[in-house]
Design goal:
268 residues, five-stranded antiparallel beta sheet, 16% helix, single chain, 4 helices
Amino acid sequence: MANNLFFLALFSFSLGCIASETVMEIIPLSNRPASEIHPIIAPLLDASDSLIPNGFNLIVKTTPAKLRELKAIIKKLDNVLTNLTITVVQTQDFSAEQLNAGLGININLSVNNPSQNQGYVEGHYQQQHRKNNTDNQQVLTTLEGTAAHIKAGRHHPISHTQVYYSAFGEPIVNQQTQLVEVSTGFSVLPRLNGEQVILEISPWSDTLQEKGNINTQEVTTTLRTHLGKWVEIAAVNQQHNSEASENLSYQQGSYTKRLRILVKVNKK
């Protein structure tokens, strides 16, 4: 049915060309789908022109002069897609300024465990544990304009115990074990624009708390950044206060934990 509609549209397209001083041509594309180039070219057409995207072909009906102009523009737009390497760091210790200065985490990762990366794209994962602190970084490679996803984590067994009493007053213990996934990762859609990149990105990080509770920190944002530069996309401040009194003594303390989420994009 879809093919019949397409050929019917193409037939009507041809009749329009015969009835006016226009030409029709199928322009093959080498690198980009027609659906990606069509919305860029469409505003350049006159009211009497037509443009049909079909897979990796653009079917154009226009005047000979306009056709030459459109073909020159399409040739520039139909460039080779670029591989991009996207690195996300979630850290309490480093800022974008420090990483851009060459300090902090080494992104030349030696850890490459595909079994943790869920098989979506090429990716790397590294996690560093310190006292009262966990930093992690993840790297994936994808084509510009292509959505990608990376996730690494574990399933932790969490036990729940319930005690209830029978009709005779005897205690009955019911224990169940549930697997809870704790993961870190991000999904991203990068679009290259010269030496800048537009990112639609959603990183998250789970932390297993006491009694099997999961604390999740996540953000969804769209931003424009320069290639090769670290940029902070989010920061979370967590304030902790404590008080204690014993034997006429009193202690009070507080500390702030700041988690930064940083991203950098490079051409591969």
